[in-house]
Amino acid sequence: MKEKNRRTEMKKLCIKLNSLIPSLISQPFKLITQESQFDQSIAYIEQLRDRIEVLKVKRNEALNIVNVAGKNNTRCNAKDYRPTLSCDVVNPSSTVEVQEVDGGLKVHLITSLEGKVLFSEVISIVEDGGAKVVKGGYTTIGDKIIYTLHAMARVTRIGMEVTSINQKLQELIKQSS
């Protein structure tokens, strides 16, 4: 009886594992050997671990850009760091980066916690410039808030007012500080 319960529990756990690994989801459970299921699970977990390391490196690079720009307290051209990226330092702890990419727009706004910039205000400015926000979010790292938006032009023939969006975001940061 104990062995039967153990096997039933193991089968449930294997089915749960099968449902969490993308390469295994579409395959029927009975056609996959447990050994191949575990091998694919291990490979997937290793991929995730590698992806986490890459994202950590990118985050550190972004923080270095922010820290270098903040220490200089001047207008800067961050093309040395990344292609087609522009940044304007409004105050030592805030930057605005607006990048036009393939008919779309990437916005990175970095401000201090006491800056009190609302995410909804950032979205409104981008949408007023003729863009539709596709995805966005914000995160807090230390004493900084990093807002990230990806947007597409509402009407591709007309496009977006990138410089206007950039100017309005800079004004928003100036008002909040």
Give a verbal description of the structure.
49% of the residues lie in helices and 24% in strands. The protein has a 5-stranded antiparallel β-sheet with strand order 1-2-3-5-4, with helices on both faces. The protein has 2 domains: 2-54; 74-176, Alpha-Beta Plaits. A hairpin with a 2-residue loop joins strand 1 and strand 2. The chain has helices at 2-20, 22-25, 34-72, 119-128, 162-176; strands at residues 87-91, 94-101, 104-112, 131-141, 144-153. The chain is elongated, with a radius of gyration of 23 Å. The chain has 5 helices and 5 strands, in the order αααβββαββα. It is α+β, with helices and mostly antiparallel strands and 177 residues long. Helix 4 (119-128) packs antiparallel against helix 5. 20% of the residues are buried. Keywords: Nucleus, Transcription, Transcription regulation. This is BHLH domain-containing protein. One of its GO terms (molecular function) is RNA polymerase II transcription regulatory region sequence-specific DNA binding. Residues 1-48 form the BHLH domain. It is found in: Nucleus.
